[in-house]
Amino acid sequence: MAQGIWIVAEQKEGELRKISFELVSEGKRLADKMGQSVTAILLGSNIKEKAPELGKYGADKVIVADDNRLATYTTDAYVSVIAELAQKEEPAIILLGASVQGKDLSGRLAARLGVGMAQDCVEFSLDNSNLVAKRPIYAGKAYATVTFKDSSPQIATARPNVFELNEPDESRSAEVIDAAFSLDDSQLKTKVVEVIQEAGDKPDLTEAELIVSGGRGMKGPENYNIIEELADLIGATVGASRSAVDAGWRPHSDQVGQTGKVVSPNLYIACGISGAIQHLAGMSTSKYIVAINKDPEAPIFQKADYGVVGDLFDVVPALTEEIKKIL
Amino acid sequence: MNILVCLKQVPDTETQIKVAPDSKSIVTDNIKWVMNPYDEYAVEEGLRLKEKFGGEVTIIGVGPTKVTESIRTALAMGADKGILVDDPALTGSDSLGTAKILAAVIKDLDYNLILCGKQGVDDDYGVVGSNLAELLGIPQISIVLKLEVSEDGSTVKAHREVEGGTLVIEASLPALITAQKGLNEPRYASLPGIMKAKKKPLDVKTIADLGLDASEVGESGAKIKIMQITPPEERLAGKIVEGETPQEKAANLVKLLHEEAKVI
Ligand SMILES: Cc1cc2nc3c(=O)[nH]c(=O)nc-3n(C[C@H](O)[C@H](O)[C@H](O)COP(=O)(O)OP(=O)(O)OC[C@H]3O[C@@H](n4cnc5c(N)ncnc54)[C@H](O)[C@@H]3O)c2cc1C
User: pLDDT tens digit string along B198-229?
Assistant: First the structure.
């Protein structure tokens, strides 16, 4: 019978990403309820030394697939290795991150194994050891609670920044196992030919704890310096409304909303954003929302924990100055 | 170059979603149904490649009769023909079920490239593309912002958006690409285009036509079951920060963020 929970860890250039620890933490909580173990699957090149970190967050075992063809994620190589391991070991549940990588991997893996997959989940529970997953639909305008049928393993992806991290236990160690797999070059049909890094080391919007966003009220791309100054000061990532993106002021990757990124930071500061339904869909799960808008009737105030009615060109720089005083 | 575009019809993004009394579906009265926004980018990219390389763009939809409206929109933009799979047995299909239906349509077609939107803005699964690529045994590149097909039409190079950067990925054709916003600026259907679209072929097929068994698709074949649909937690308007001047307001806001919310 299928046993145990697997989580697929994520690494970028040899460093484990935060979602990996979120997955182990949630996997551990579920495994404890089932009386089973958590195994982390770690793919990469020269990556084995990272395995113990996963143990500290709750992994009982780490299966490491080390191969230079696994250094950077490709669909073909990763699906091939994980599917082979899963067919051999038969885990009951596989959790992945609802990151760009996890979302690409999860669908193909589920189709290869012929099982169901629940994408971008924000809550997991168990019904007699069967996974029950809650996930936003219509960009969070509603939630669907789903279960699996004829699926072993049950596969789900977890939204980044939602699941609480366990307190790392320095004394805890995981059993580290070298994976046996057969990765045939003829299966590798896609090739990464270039990696273009964005400047700066700010976390991606989907993973950011703090976000400062500017909309059409910014009036032009040159004015984003006041947003950037505030963001730099508090270590926030900069976002934008679709209007600002479509006007060419900001790159597409900055767009928050139903047809952009769905974000759930601790703090979302919306500057000169009216609060259209499509924008709200992308940021309503933020823990705290601040709106800065000169129109007291702007719909964004209906969702904001703290609203500042005023001209953002006065309020944002003043805010930066006031924060400097407490830092 | 023959291009297939998979198309979904979804509620307009303006729609306020209401949970139906059965708690397993949404209220569909008065919903305006539109082509999935990401599929517009897929259709547009298909048309641009056809303009460069020649060949045909075929639109494939799965769903009830009203989906023909969105397929006609794509034909009015310039696609050549449409196929709709419409069968009562399809109700309740999950992503894998939908991909099976699409794969059954596609296995008899001659194609070089399949384009899909990166996700439907209704269920937000974003996996029909990768499910389909797996069933067809072809490479996939998802969330694509830029696409280049080699002059001889044998390979694609795609820019794929990832956290904090872009990956440039190469694959040989046939392959499946999922479109991200930013890939292009979709054209509007012109009036002559709309007139012409009325005469373009649009085949309607049932699952029996495709040789599929009703147990593989629809609710009976679905591996994911919806138990319940719930509205989001209501977010209530909070405080308006007091102050006579921008400085005072800023100072009061910082106090709240620091002492009450404890987020900075
Ligand atoms: C299919 C579809 C998908 C969409 N997806 C998205 C999406 O993903 N994300 C998204 O954001 N939008 C999306 N939209 C667009 C959305 O409908 C709105 O048009 C958009 O969000 C508005 O952006 P905005 O708030 O920046 O601009 P506006 O609505 O023009 O608001 C600007 C605000 O700035 C305020 N302002 C102006 N000057 C100042 C000042 N000096 N100081 C303070 N405040 C000021 C104004 O009072 C106003 O409230 C989508 C639309 C469609 C049709």
Answer: 999 999 999 999 999 999 999 999 999 999 99
3-state secondary structure of A64: strand
ipTM: 0.95
Here the tokens at position B94 are 């999950």
Task: Using CB atoms, pick whichever of A106, A189, A204 lies closest to residue B171.
Answer: A189
pTM of the entire structure? Answer: 0.96
| Mutate which: B32, B224, B260, vs A, most A CBs within 10 A | B224
Could you say which architecture CATH assigns to the domain A205-326?
A: 3-Layer(aba) Sandwich (3.40)
For residues A115 and A128, give the distance between their C-alpha atoms in angstroms, rounded to a whole number. Answer: 19
How far is the C-alpha of A157 from the C-alpha of A98, rounded, in Å?
A: 5
Q: Where are the domains of chain B?
A: 2-221, 233-264
| Preceding omega of B37 cis (within 30 degrees of 0) | no
Six-digit token pair at B109? Answer: 């077609």
Buried b (16+ CB within 10 A) or exposed e, A120-158: bbbebeeeebebbbbbbbbbbbbbbbbbbbebbbbbbbb
Does residue A276 line the site of ligand 1, with CB under 6 A?
Answer: yes
Gap from A100 CA to chain B (nearest CA, Å): 6
Phi, psi (5° rounding) for residue A241?
A: -85, 170
CA-based nearest distance B139→chain A, Å? 6
Residue B36 Cα, ligand 1 centroid: separation in angstroms? 20
The DSSP code for A256 is B
Burial class (CB in 10 A: 0-12, 13-18, 19+), B90: buried
Hey, how many other C-beta atoms are within 10 angstroms of the C-beta on A164? 9
How distant is the Cα of A198 from the closest Cα of chain B, in angstroms?
5
Burial B121-154 (b: 16+ CB within 10 A, else e): bbbbbbbbbbbbbbbbebbbbbbbbbbebeeebe
* Residue B35 CA from chain centroid, whole number: 8
Nearest CA in chain B to A293: B240
Span A5-51, pLDDT tens digits? 999 999 998 999 999 999 999 999 999 999 999 999 999 999 999 99
CATH 3.40.50.620 in chain A is located at 5-187
Q: What is the CATH number of domain A5-187?
A: 3.40.50.620
Cα distances (Å, whole numbers) of residue A308 to A149, A299, B240: 49, 13, 6
Ligand 1 atom 50, closest CA: A278
Query: Ligand 1 centre from A303 Cα, in Å?
Result: 15
CB contact under 8 Å between A267 and B264, yes or no, is yes
User: Between the CA of residue B173 and those of A184, B6, B160, what are the distances in Å?
Assistant: 20, 17, 17
The reply to whether CATH 3.40.190.10 applies to domain B2-221 is: no
Please choose from B12, B13, B118, B185 the residue to mutate so as to test ligand 1's pocket, defined by most ligand atoms within 8 A of CB. Answer: B13
- Interval between CA A140 and ligand 1 midpoint (Å): 18
Contact across the interface for A259 and B37, Cβ inside 8 Å: yes
